[in-house]
Amino acid sequence: MTRILSWILSLLAFVLFVRLWAGPASYPDIGRLEQKIEQQNAANDQQAEIKRKLQMDVVGLSKDDDAVEEHARSELGMVREGETFYQVILKSDPEAATAPVPQVKVAPHVE
Which end of the chain is more exposed for a tag (fewer CB within 10 A), N or C? Predict the structure, then answer.
């Protein structure tokens, strides 16, 4: 009887040991999950920084008319009435030489 009981307990210990190293929620699986958590935290930190910068831009644009004008000039190519737009194409940039010239719209100056 004790011999059968010791075999059963040995078999049970072996099964639990195998599961500890090879089954779901095993040590290697936990290590992989911790690595995924670290990667996701790094990605979250990057996205949080992007979000913070965008929120600062939104606050700046909502409070300052000069910031809106600067954004329109740099990003949208807007010029004031009476200004002349010049586009400089450098010889070292072959893509710019073949790129179509953007259409520039003149916005009326409102004071």
Answer: C
- This model's pTM is above 0.85: no
CA distance 23 to 41: 26
Helices (H), the chain: 2-22, 27-63, 65-76, 94-98
Give yes or no for a contact between 43 and 51, defined as CB atoms under 8 angstroms apart.
Answer: no
Q: pLDDT of the chain along its 111 residues, tens only?
A: 889 999 999 999 998 888 877 877 788 888 899 999 999 999 999 999 999 999 998 888 888 888 888 888 888 888 888 888 787 888 886 665 565 655 655 555 555
* Helix (H/G/I), strand (E/B), else coil: 28: helix
